[in-house]
Amino acid sequence: MTKLFFKYNRIVISALHRLKYSTVPKTDSKLSINGTEFVTDDYTNVTPKILSYLNRNLHLDKGNPLSMVRQRIVNYFYSSFTHRGSPDFSVYDNLSPIVSTKQNFDDLLIPLDHPSRVKSDCYYVNRSTLLRAHMTAHQSELLRSGLDNFLMIGPVYRRDEIDSTHFPIFHQVDAVRSQRRDQLFPKNEDLELFEPTFDPTKPHTFTNSISDPTKQSCHTLEATKLIEHQLKDHLLGLIKVLFGDIKYRWVDAYFPFTHPSWELEIYYNNNWLEVLGCGVVRNEILAKAGPNNSIAYAFGLGLERLAMALYKIPDIRLMWSNDSGFLSQFQNKDLNAKITYKPVSVYPQCTNDISFWLPGHLSIDTFMSNDFYDLVRDVGGDIVEQVKLKDKFEHPKSKKHSLCYSIVYRHLERTLTQAEVNRVHKEIETAAISAFNVVIR
Q1: Cβ(180)–Cβ(293) under 8 Å?
Q2: What is the pTM for the complete model shown?
Q3: CATH number for the domain including 351?
Q4: What pLDDT score does 229 carry?
Q5: Backbone angles phi, psi at 71, to 5 degrees
Q6: Which H, E and C letters describe 408-441, residue by residue?
């Protein structure tokens, strides 16, 4: 495995740097992903390492803790919402992770200047295409197909820091539940979803405001409060199925695609843990998707966060492990079994620092750490446990800027030698010089 790892990096590293870090548009270059060719450009920053994870689908891998949590969530919605013996909710858990910027941002009312759009946070295939950053990217297309209640489940991709709780791919469950007036108010024909000033047959003639923190201007207060009550009641039911009777709190939040919005936190292991975000779907999204005669709620949660809390899993990388010592603790187990992960063995860490001077056009404030983290992931792979910015320095005379990162290496399945760690670390140094034009200190 180690020989293949080094061979892989020697083959891809030069191509990776040319593709990923160049600011020159490469309209003549193409990238093949899952059998489809995409033209690359100055926004292309998806890496071979990230693409190698595309078809793993851990949420569908029976015996993986992520799949167990996914199935428990699906079972809850199947059993809690039925109509004439059939589940109200449909499940979509194998949607293509390659989406357009329209799907990922525009359809969800995410402003052009929103920080979630920047290259340092997303994996772009090109300017108009990326690996989805959230499962909500599929919300509008499913609404347009006529669906009212659905779960969207799958991996999402975000450039992020490196530590025991962060990985560039994690798995989300997003959901939408919409209701017409007769469904929301079955026993009271006097109550309405919309204010008299709003004409649901002409939604584009009305400017929907979210200046009122309690509701959208198109909705009545009664409709908003009832859908809020349903949303919170349904989600608390889910959390109690997973964690039992637990202390919780609702926190006001902001999301571009819902209003009002909340986050749910639970008191777990003597700390408040955020487990999901939710809210009332912005009416503009529903209006663009089809007949504007309903109100809806939506929520999103991360499977890794829930699984790590439920099963006491200390490192997010373990979810991707093929080690039988890890997987056997979850295979052929009852979904509702109380499982506490037991480390098979703890292999020692190796820590190496890397310090470098930035080129003149970059400073401590303008250098993107996420770019460096991505490079470390590509070269070091899954043996990199954590990367921390250790020190910043500005030379008093030359005014040059220097950064020092501490890189912690640990293999999940065997002991690393310092010699092989040093070889990987040297590859990272070489890659950083090529990619960022830095000078190693």
Answers
A1: yes
A2: 0.85
A3: 3.30.70.380
A4: 97
A5: -65, -35
A6: EECCCCCCCCHHHHHHHHHHHHHHHHHHHCCEEC
